[in-house]
From TrEMBL:
NCBIfam families: fpg (TIGR00577), PRK01103.1 (NF002211). This is Formamidopyrimidine-DNA glycosylase. Involved in base excision repair of DNA damaged by oxidation or by mutagenic agents. Acts as DNA glycosylase that recognizes and removes damaged bases. Has a preference for oxidized purines, such as 7,8-dihydro-8-oxoguanine (8-oxoG). Has AP (apurinic/apyrimidinic) lyase activity and introduces nicks in the DNA strand. Cleaves the DNA backbone by beta-delta elimination to generate a single-strand break at the site of the removed base with both 3'- and 5'-phosphates. One of its GO terms (biological process) is base-excision repair. Its cofactor is Zn(2+). Keywords: DNA damage, DNA repair, DNA-binding, Glycosidase, Hydrolase, Lyase, Metal-binding, Multifunctional enzyme, Zinc, Zinc-finger. The active site is at P2, E3, K58, R290. Binds 1 zinc ion per subunit. InterPro entries: DNA_glyclase_Znf_dom_DNA_BS (IPR015887), FPG_cat (IPR012319), FPG_Glyclase (IPR020629), FPG_N (IPR035937), H2TH_FPG (IPR015886), Ribosomal_uS13-like_H2TH (IPR010979), Znf_DNA_glyclase/AP_lyase (IPR000214), Znf_FPG/IleRS (IPR010663). It comes from Pseudovibrio denitrificans. The gene is mutM.
């Protein structure tokens, strides 16, 4: 499933077309994805202007001038791509490019949008072979209290995340450090890949108790500050690399992300640890139903 960097990469790729655009037409090619679209899905989208296009955790949010917010999730295999037509008419037929493995029968929703800075129509196509993604319209006034968002934690790239916040958040918690970091009620958007990478960079074992980020006095230890910095660092590096292309993820222009080539620990079981002067070998263990990759020698 795409993690925060992959979703943010998609947002950045589509932003030039969605920002302040007018949604001229919507093709809904099936009644549902993971959830039903609803009978008024198309009617509530067509002829609406986009006020803003943002991301919250692993969700894409299209804020409309009607007061609705279109919340989109990529699921396991969802992806977007765009095609710019040569004519301003939204009904024009154009030759479509289909990225490898993205067959046209899996093109379930097509937005025909007119970006604010041009007269031509851009087709933004949502493709999802497994149909685990979804799109749901939520009134803006109800967004903060909606079940998907009401208990959501802070953004890991925001200013709130630092060592003191982590130490306070995990105070007296006996759950493992990795499980706590993956809990979306604490920090929103962190996923398995980047937690493994951040913990390795910090030299912390994923099996430590989450409460060990603070000393007996309750003050954050140096490792807490280092961990918060490495979380932000690894996410930013992944975003700049276009995310990690594992299985289904592609960027909006159809190209592959390449951060997977920079993995230092994830999916490197049996390989030598890359920490300087460390003679350890990367191990894999199943932790809370997820694969954990770590170096047993330098992650303490």
């Amino acid at each position: 499933m795409p993690e925060l960097p992959e979703v943010e990469t998609v947002r950045r790729g589509l932003a030039p077309f969605f920002d302040n655009a007018t949604i001229c037409r919507v093709e809904q090619r099936r009644p549902d994805l993971r959830f039903p679209f609803g009978d008024d899905f198309v009617a509530r989208l067509e002829n609406r202007q986009v006020v803003s296009f943002s991301r919250r955790a692993k969700y894409l949010l299209l804020d409309l001038d009607s007061g609705d917010v279109l919340v989109m999730h990529l699921g396991m295999s969802g992806s977007f791509r765009w095609i710019e037509t040569e004519d301003a008419e939204p009904t024009q037929t154009v030759e479509m490019y289909h990225a490898k493995g993205k067959h046209p029968q899996h093109d379930h929703v097509i937005f025909h949008v007119r970006p604010a800075d041009r007269e031509t129509i851009v087709k933004i196509i949502y493709n999802d072979p497994r149909r685990f993604g979804f799109m749901v319209l939520i009134p803006r006034s109800e967004l903060a209290t909606h079940p998907m968002f009401v208990d959501m934690g802070i953004e890991p790239l925001g200013n709130e995340l630092d060592g003191a916040y982590l130490a306070k958040l995990f105070e007296n918690r006996k759950t493992s450090l990795k499980a706590a970091l993956l809990n979306q009620k604490f920090i929103a958007g962190l996923g398995n890949i980047y937690v493994c990478e951040a913990l390795w960079r910090t030299g912390l074992s994923p099996f430590n108790s989450a409460s060990t980020l603070a000393g007996k006095s309750g003050k954050p230890l140096k490792k807490a500050d280092e961990l918060s910095n490495h979380i932000r660092e690894v996410l930013q590096e992944a975003i700049e690399s276009g995310g990690s292309s594992l299985k289904d993820h592609r960027q909006a222009d159809g190209s592959l992300g390449y951060f997977q080539h920079n993995f230092s620990v994830y999916d490197r079981e049996g390989e030598a640890c890359r920490t300087p002067k460390c003679s350890g070998v990367i191990e894999r263990k199943v932790q809370n139903g997820r694969s954990t990759f770590f170096c047993p020698k330098c992650q303490k």
